[in-house]
Amino acid sequence: MQDIFSRIAQLKNEGASFVLATVVHSEGSTPREPGARMIVLPDGKVEGTVGGGALEKRVIEDAIRLMGEGSSKKYVYDMGKDGKDIQLGMICGGKTEVLLERFGKSVKIFIFGAGHVGKKCAEMCALLNLPFWVVDDRTDFARSEIFPGAVEVLLSDFSSSFSKLPIDQNSYVIIATYGHQYDGTCLEGAVRTEARYIGMIGSRRKVKTLLQKLKEKGVNVDDPRIYAPVGLHLGDNSPEEISMSILAEIVKLKSEGTAQHMREMKE
């Protein structure tokens, strides 16, 4: 069985949302001693335990609520029927303090295309400590040794890859494949996901032509999540600076920045 700390590290690396429940204090007769831990996932599934029964049921409910309300909070659960703390009406009658810590909602980057720009984007994600996935359909490119910091390097045709990836509302999609038709395939697949951002590389002419073709197929190319051509205008077209402009755009949106020169910012 996987150690709970290894599982926590894995979930954090994947950018997954979860709550870690830890028993930090107990009085009287309680199901578990301090140090007991349990991971609560958004769908209510758990790994580990803080005692089972009514206590665990209430901890799960509080953890799920906390995912949408705050970052961390300590709860005191009273196993009896009297007192000022959360009443559970259990026979044992002791008290348990449980610290709930929320993790996740971190940015997840999905890079479609393992060529020059995709590789530089991946390197920059690793530098910024952003979890990233790489997708390509070429065996010589979709290799884990080329992307040592990736959560996953997926060798797959682009059209079917979306069903294999954990793309959610906090995901950012970068499309930089080796062919216009594959860029179109990825854009078409990306708009069907919950991704917050969909950036596609290309010249203005190429982007305009491709978006028109997709529009004729019924794809909503007016989706405000689409950034095409991708990136901020930094004035250079090298793979390194293109990737910098893409990640700068993502960080700007993620952090709700202005991209204004700091020397021009008012205090």
Provide a quick synopsis of the model.
The chain has about 270 residues and is of the alpha/beta class.
Explain what this protein looks like in three dimensions.
The protein has 267 residues and is an alpha/beta fold. Helix content is 31%, strand content 22%. The protein has 2 domains: 4-103, no CATH class; 108-255, NAD(P)-binding Rossmann-like Domain (Rossmann fold, 3-Layer(aba) Sandwich). The chain contains 7 helices and 12 strands. It has a 6-stranded mixed β-sheet, with helices on both faces. A 6-stranded parallel β-sheet has the order 9-8-7-10-11-12, with helices on both faces. It starts with a helix and ends in a 12-residue tail after the last helix. The model has no long low-confidence stretch (mean pLDDT 87).
How many DSSP-defined strands?
12
CATH topology of the largest domain: Rossmann fold
Strand content: 15-25%
Structural class by helix and strand composition: alpha/beta
The name of the CATH architecture of the largest domain is 3-Layer(aba) Sandwich
Q: In angstroms, what is the radius of gyration?
A: 23 Å
Shape: elongated
Largest sheet: 6 strands, mixed
> CATH superfamily membership of the largest domain, which one?
NAD(P)-binding Rossmann-like Domain
Estimate nothing, just give the exact number of structural domains.
2
In percent, how helical is the residue content? 25-40%
Number of helices: 7
N→C terminal distance: 53 Å
Strand order of the largest sheet: 3-2-1-6-4-5
Uncertain stretches of 5 or more adjacent residues: none
- pLDDT average, as an integer? 87
Query: What is the H-and-E element order?
Result: HEEEHEEEEHEEHEHEHEH
What is the CATH class name of the largest domain? Alpha Beta
